[in-house]
Amino acid sequence: MNWFQRFPARLLHEQEALGNLLSQGWVKRVVWAVDESAGTVSAEVDFEAGGKLREVRLVYPFVYPFCPIQVLPRAEGERWSNHQWPSGELCLEMRADNWHTDFNGADMLISARNLLGTEALVDDAGNAMRVPTTHHVTPAQLLHFKAARLVISDAMIAEVIRRGGDVHGMDLTAVDHENCVVHFAVGLVGSAEHDAWVDVGIPSRLRAKANRLARVALLQKGDARHLALLDKNLSPDEVWAQFSSIAYSGYGVAIGLLDGQVLAKWLGEKAYDLAKVPMDYQQRAPARNNAMAGKRVAIVGCGSMGSKVAASLARAGVTDFYLVDGDVMKIANIVRNDLDWTAVGAHKVDGVTERLQAINPEIKVDGWIGDLGGQFSTANLVTCLRKLAECDLIVETTASGQGFGMAAQVATMDDIPMVWGRVFGGGYGGYVARSRPGLEADALDVRHEIYTWMTNPEFPKPPKDSDIDYGVEPDHQPSMIADDADVSVIAAHLARMALDALLPANESDYPFSAYVIGLRREWIFAEPFQTFPIKLRPPPPLGGIGANLSTAATVLPDLVPPREQ
């Protein structure tokens, strides 16, 4: 139902309000029209303002009165004011950022009259009066109509300033988007005086596509290069000539630095201003994530859950990863994996590596392409297991019984915390769990406790074809049915638990070490997000283990030869 049908009294109120302005004399004509297909009402209004007869159209949008009225010249392309959007719409005192349903079309018209009347006045020096702006325009709004953009880091600017001197060759990478082309400054070309320099803050994938058709220089105010970048009338080859002795080839970018400002032009058939994209460096991650510095995390399984957890941990501040997976990214994986078409055909380890380094270029990634429990030489497998043992945390997401078992044994033998998660077949829920040395039983025992809890004979039978613990079953099962939202919820819980497991035990937010989470009304869940914490038994006492250690202490000296002094 259109707004004027839903609120007929409001339409009458609008008509009366403009009618009152007609009686005042400065509004000369009002003609109403309704567009039922668009759900809008419009009024053609002729009124006097600034010594002229103005012909405007007021458009009451389909969501009126919860959205401002448009006031714009009826003649297309007419520019009346400095307070006018590119579409021609006047920017008035009542607008999107302060609109209230008490405002009406008469208020908008009065505001337009005041604006145009003030701007028609002149001061004692004969200068036209200006109406000061009262609203804030964001940097993003300023870029809205800038199709050519430049991303240049503070580190790059500092290196150009350090080099000083004349013009320097610059490597640029251009990325095309629907409404703009973004140019990334990724490096500086080497010369007789300076080595080549690479901005390591830019992902390597962007750096690999760079060209060397840009020039950058420090400017002096009013010098030839400065004036060339300011002049709107110079041809591309005239601008280029100020930055290079090489003949203009039909394409280039010229950049100048002056007192903290970046001036740039993209040169093609014409010279276009290249807008620097402003960056902000506000702290967005919580301070507790500082504890992630220096931690190495293993992701065992780079499928739908593992890929999401890895990306989340990278954003949280983890900068050292060891990835384990033997699968190749396929088109069908796109429905749930954090990777996309650009990774199809690559091993998931390689795809996730690129994904992590696109999030943070300083991330270090090592990987093993293989499935724990697959057919590999012992030497190859041991290489992987030894690197797992060097990690501060193991995150297991394979849904593989064999893979889980090997990862769990490494965690137990080398006292490494381990977290894991599963989505139930059908996507109606899942669980997350952890095993920390000395705080919970080892991972295999914890998993057995969880499975025992979930198979309680007093619980309803799970849905058909739904494995409540995908990893307990033999490997090579059919693909689990669940959508991306299902996996994303459980993956987010697992990522949160993984971050928590990297903190000291006394700082943990989790009173329990296993949680079963519902995503819809099914099985034991009465509603979405119903959660069941599972109380686990404490780890076994060290008595038996201590006895074995005593035996080892007696036997080992006889087996291990003494070190040479």
UniProtKB/TrEMBL annotation:
InterPro entries: ThiF/MoeB/HesA, ThiF_NAD_FAD-bd, Ubiquitin-activating_enz. Residues 295-425 form the THIF-type NAD/FAD binding fold domain. It comes from the Bacteria. One of its GO terms (molecular function) is ubiquitin-like modifier activating enzyme activity. GO terms for biological process: cyclic threonylcarbamoyladenosine biosynthetic process. PANTHER family: TRNA THREONYLCARBAMOYLADENOSINE DEHYDRATASE. This is THIF-type NAD/FAD binding fold domain-containing protein. It comes from Acidovorax soli.
